Amino acid sequence: MTSGFRFSNRSERALADLHPDLIRVARRALELTEVDFVVTEGRRSEARQRALVAAGASRTLRSRHLTGHAIDVAAWIDGGVRWDWPLYPRIAAAFKAAAAELGVAIRWGGDWPRFRDGPHFELDRAVYP
Ligand SMILES: [Zn+2]
User: Fold this and answer.
1) Ligand 1 centre and the CA of 79: distance in Å?
2) Assigned fold of 9-123
3) What are the residue ranges spanned by the domains of the chain?
4) Which pLDDT score is estimated for 114?
5) For 71-93, what is the mean pLDDT?
6) Long-range contacts for 104-110 (Cβ within 8 Å, ≥24 apart)?
7) 110 C-alpha to center of ligand 1: Å?
8) Separation of 1 CA from ligand 1 center, angstroms?
9) What mean pLDDT is predicted for residues 28-35?
10) pTM of the entire structure?
11) What digits encode the pLDDT tens for the residues 66-81?
12) Ligand 1 center from residue 57 Cα (angstroms)
């Protein structure tokens, strides 16, 4: 059984130049999830990363977004984005199930001990340097 959720054109554009294994995981996660989500950001330019760090929205210039190894999502409820924390572990459960099924090693930003980042998923550096 699948969710029946579909990626919007905006989500498809954000997915387009990511690592193919991450795209596969995101597509399967959307089939498995109970909470609909949109892809807000995929690959980032260095200029954008610098701007995010300057604004305090990111903490590193070595972001996995620069190489197409990271994706940010947002919960999509009744036609709008929601940032309520309880939605994100549910989306993460779908990503983790998808990754396990496909044999792809991912990390969820919500599992980081500091600066928890619920919308962020990335391919594991240990496997995808
Ligand atoms: Zn991110």
Assistant:
1) 22
2) Muramoyl-pentapeptide Carboxypeptidase; domain 2 (3.30.1380)
3) 9-123
4) 85
5) 97
6) 104/21, 104/22, 104/24, 104/25, 106/22, 106/25
7) 11
8) 29
9) 97
10) 0.94
11) 999 999 999 999 999 9
12) 10
